[in-house]
Amino acid sequence: MWTYIAYGLSFIFFAALTLRYRLEVKEEQFIHTIQVFGFSLLKRTIHANDIEKITIIYLGKKTIILLHLKKKLRIKLQRFSPEGIDQQMIQFAEANNIEVENPN
């Protein structure tokens, strides 16, 4: 039994090492993908007309982006966002007439 637990923990550890997050900003949509072992686990597409506003919060070197959707949901992009994503979000918002809070 302990052998199976050890194998299970090893598998979970290896899967965590290969976990990748990818965020693509396109003209009228965002594509957020979570991959393990190179396979997509979750792929979420968010269209510009679904976004009510974007909030950008700067905390030192850290940037937190909140997407407020019209369905009263909020998506937080914080830990795994690529460099310069705040500028891409501002350009995306301007191109699609979306309100931006705190665009410092």
Automatic annotation (TrEMBL):
Domain of life of the organism encoding this protein: Bacteria
TM annotation in the entry: 6-23
Keywords: Membrane, Transmembrane, Transmembrane helix
Name by which UniProt lists this protein: Uncharacterized protein
